[in-house]
Each structure stands twice: as structure tokens, then as C-alpha cells.
Model the fold of this input.
Amino acid sequence: MKRLSEFEASIDQWKIDGIKVRCIMMHCPLPGCDHDIRIPFSKSAVALPDGRPVWKHEAGATVEDITLSPSYHLMKSDGYCGLHGFVRNGNWIGV
Ligand SMILES: [Zn+2]
Done:
């Protein structure tokens, strides 16, 4: 378990197809990775028009205490790095 702040996390606004959604921006927590990730979230967690998933904002207001659900997974089968974990109470909990 590590603090999101260790990965220079911030909460930002992302505009996709004219729709504004809040997101966590941070460096990928997986050791050896040097890319950034962006996790969109909202209270309703309705997917974006392009089908991109949106995580449910469960609790917290800043990167120090935010909790999202479900887990975040960049699947290797989709060509990504395999990062998998939870954002809970401002922590990154890898699985
Ligand atoms: Zn990665």
C-alpha cells in the first residue's frame, strides 16, 4: 500500500467528447512503468459516450482521502502494463 501522493497524484478535470468528468491523474504505480494514468470518476459512475468506464466516487474529496470502486485494471490482454489495484482512502493498494 502506498499513498497516491507518492505518484504525484492530482484531481483534474478531463473533457471527453464535450463532457467534463473529474479524474485522478498520476504516474503509473507499477514499478518500472514511466507512463501516466487517468482514472475518471463520478458519483453516478455512468460510462462516457465513447464507452470508456467511469469509476464510482465512494468517499473523500482530495487525493489524500479519496476512495473509488471497483478496482482499476490495465489489462495485459489489451496491450497495457497489467497494473491492477484499488484507490482507497488516498492509498494505492495493488493486487
Ligand atoms: Zn503501467
Remarks:
- The longest strand covers residues 19-27.
